[in-house]
Write a structure and sequence with these properties.
This protein has helices spanning 11-22, 46-51, 70-81, 91-120, 129-150, 163-181, 183-186, 193-205, 208-211; strands at residues 2-5, 31-34, 59-62, 65-68. It is of the alpha+beta class. The chain folds into two domains: 2-81, 3-Layer(aba) Sandwich (Glutaredoxin); 91-211, Glutathione S-transferase Yfyf (Class Pi), Chain A, domain 2. Helix 4 (91-120) runs antiparallel to helix 5. 34% of the residues are buried.
């Protein structure tokens, strides 16, 4: 049985859980999940660091295969466990999805991470509200690019749902939650009609709502 280390409130663990659900794999039946990170601890123990020297979640153990980095785990799972064709196959579908996964890591997440960590993981007395505002407003601009992409296709990597949608959607969802929770700190959220349509489609047709945060996990 596969073993997944990571708490459900981690965006990167949510990616993996969502992907597993789309593949029809059930916690307790097909994989074991161990809470780790933040108040759960365990991610700095010798046992964990032996599998992931970064001390971060998620980590996936599947037999002799040990993987960290959430996007890599999704690539592995879709390659090894997609027996029913949940995700599209072929070079064009694969790399259209891959580019969005890299875009999420390199372009979307860095400014959004500044706002997210600043408002949910940093004590109020230590928050840099100028950096938080700048990070959020930069994310507005970045997501305008995604909105343009979605003007001509149903999903972020084409007209079929793929793992790239999982990776990007969870980040976009946090962008929405940050503004809903801290509107005076983030500044205005840009209205992006194609992004909104895409999120609505994901909620209706995928397991997205099972794993996306209902509210922000704010560490006091």
């Amino acid at each position: 049985m596969m073993r997944l280390w990571g708490r459900k409130s981690s965006i990167n663990v949510q990616k993996v859980l969502w992907c597993l659900a789309e593949l029809g794999l059930k916690e307790g039946k097909d994989f074991e999940r161990i809470d780790a990170g933040l108040h759960f601890g365990k991610n700095n123990t010798p046992e964990f660091l032996k599998t992931n020297p970064n001390g971060l979640v998620p980590t996936l153990e599947d037999g002799d295969m040990v993987l960290w980095e959430s996007n890599t785990i999704l690539r592995y799972l879709s390659s090894q466990y997609d027996k029913n064709g949940r995700f599209p196959k072929g070079i064009a579908a694969q790399y259209s999805s891959e580019k969005m996964m890299d875009w999420q890591l390199a372009t979307l997440w860095p400014p959004l991470r500044t706002a997210f960590l600043g408002l949910t993981r940093t004590p109020e007395k230590d928050r840099d509200y100028d950096a938080i505002y700048k990070g959020y407003q930069t994310t507005n601009q970045t997501l305008s690019l995604l909105d343009n992409i979605l003007a001509s296709q149903d999903y972020c990597s084409g007209n079929q749902f793929n793992i790239g949608d999982i990776v990007v959607a969870l980040g976009v969802h946090r962008w929405v939650l940050l503004n809903d929770t801290f509107p005076e700190k983030t500044g205005p959220r840009t209205e992006l009609k194609n992004v909104e349509r895409w999120l609505k489609k994901l909620r209706a047709e995928t397991c997205f709502s099972e794993f996306a945060d209902k509210e922000l996990n704010i560490v006091k």
